[in-house]
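Summary of Year 1 activities. Much of the first year was spent building the evaluation harness for sequence design. The harness presents a backbone, in tokenized form, and records the residue chosen at every position. We chose the following record to illustrate the format because it has been used consistently in internal testing since the harness was completed.
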């Protein structure tokens, strides 16, 4: 399971507001990749009807852990594995 924390070490939950480096506010949805040596973590956020994936550092976040077999929420789907 992946864990997302803010710069103070507090765990960020789905639905919480996160602020990017420009000061724009987004709603955190889920993490798609934990940080690895040479690779930043990635998170999915929403704002103004748009869903976007960004590197975790854009929001001062850190993603750690291993991805789970089950998506974190129902909006995350795995494409291409079932031929659909």
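For this record, the design step produced the sequence shown next.
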């Amino acid at each position: 399971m992946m864990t997302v924390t803010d710069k103070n070490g507090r765990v960020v939950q789905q639905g919480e507001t996160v602020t990017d480096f420009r000061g724009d506010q987004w709603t955190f949805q889920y993490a798609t990749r934990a940080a690895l040596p040479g690779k930043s973590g990635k998170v999915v956020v929403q704002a103004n009807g748009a869903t976007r994936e960004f590197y975790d550092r854009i929001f001062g976040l850190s993603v750690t852990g291993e991805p789970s077999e089950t998506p974190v929420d129902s909006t995350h789907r795995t494409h291409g594995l079932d031929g659909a």
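The chain has one domain: 2-65. Quantitative recovery figures across the full test set are reported in Table 2.
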